[in-house]
Design brief:
Layout: E1 11-13, H1 20-31, E2 37-39, E3 45-47, H2 50-64, E4 69-71, E5 77-78, H3 80-87, H4 91-99, E6 116-117, H5 118-145, H6 156-163
Antiparallel strand pairs: 1-4, 2-3, 5-6
Helix pairs in contact: 1-2, 3-4
């Protein structure tokens, strides 16, 4: 496990090269729905809170799929590049969102750099996903109302032209 430095409280862990142990842990978690006990090297046992157990299930599932895991508190301040990467957009596109006040940000005292809170970024991503789902639902309803839902793909362009009243694209 990599340890964070003083300015970065995120911790990214790569999956192990040999996933056999992860597969065994995954099977164990599938067979048990109640939190387990954490056993220390001195034999002392501490029950895992349900919240920690659920996080463990997510971590094991992702690592079993050979994915790295990053753990970060919601108050974590992200650079614009990191925030852009998490949204899957370019940094200039993120800067436009910040300038348009689509996403709140802070500017550390005496700095020209902007920082975005992880919680704000995740809330924006959820809003964006919800808006996209709403647009898709509206388009689906329009296609069904126009009789395009059951049209054969080879006839779709003609059917779309008919639905638009004979107008071109």
């Amino acid at each position: 496990m990599t340890s964070p430095d003083a300015t970065d409280t995120r911790t990214t862990v790569l999956p192990p090269k040999d996933l056999a142990g992860m597969a065994e842990l995954s099977r164990f978690l599938e067979d048990h729905t109640e939190p387990a006990l954490l056993l220390g090297p001195d034999g002392r046992q501490v029950p895992l809170p349900m919240e920690v157990y659920e996080i463990l299930e997510h971590v094991v599932a992702a690592m079993s799929a050979n994915q790295a895991i990053t753990v970060a508190p919601l108050g974590q301040q992200l650079t614009t590049q990191t925030a852009a990467d998490l949204l899957g957009i370019s940094r200039p596109t993120l800067i436009k969102l910040l300038d348009q006040r689509e996403l709140p940000y802070d500017r550390p005292t005496g700095s020209r750099h902007r920082r975005i809170r992880l919680a704000d970024l995740l809330a924006y991503r959820a809003r964006r996903g919800s808006a996209a789902e709403d647009r898709l639902a509206a388009m689906t309803m329009q296609a069904a109302a126009a009789g395009l839902w059951d049209v054969d793909a080879s006839r779709y362009d003609d059917a779309l032209r008919e639905a638009r009243g004979g107008q071109g694209h």
